[in-house]
Amino acid sequence: xxxxxxxxxxxxxxxxxxxxxxSEPDLSVVAEEADGTGxxxxxxxxxxxxxxxxxxxPRLDGIEATRALERSLDAAPAVVVLTTFENDDYVYGAxxxxxxxxxxxxxxxxxxxxxxxxxxxxxxxxxxxxxxxxAAAAGAVDxxxxxxxxxxxxxxxxxxxxxxxxxxxxxxxxxxxxxVETVKTHVSGILAKLSVRDRTQAVxxxxxxGLIRVGExxxxx
Length: 221
Fold this sequence. Notes:
Keywords: DNA-binding, Phosphoprotein, Transcription, Transcription regulation. The protein has about 220 residues and is α/β, with parallel strands linked by helices.
């Protein structure tokens, strides 16, 4: 059973998401919050696998709430942020803070359900074109993870570019004519060198560092 917590200041949004999620036999809503201020305590009490988090809330927004989860819990739940607008610059801040991905509130029901299962598997929700637009709106930031991009080998940098295109390990293996296990080794090396937890954070670091420039197709060079 995949357990989910809902964090949104709109009662109607939470009610709709709860009804959708509870209709699935492998998904269950275990907690709700109307603001980001109670997220850490809620996560400690209920231990959800995933938090669906509104990115814009009146007292504590989704960026700070995601950052609080990452800072306060040894095993923080996967966070997927919800936004009304695809070009919401808050979303890129939430990705930097540790969110695994984002969804539009107008997403189709099956997309929302698939997203929950995707992040629990350890995969990330990457939308390459949207991430490029968000990176352009937010601007690059010099972070330790971004500076670490320079330590990647040529093959690791190539793999990171393919990750930024939203490709799976199997797709990357086919592109590079190597085995899937080899790709997994490269991805593990990337995450370790960048000191990041998942593929989403690695892609954010790639944009922040300038390895992938905003507006270009992140194809390998």
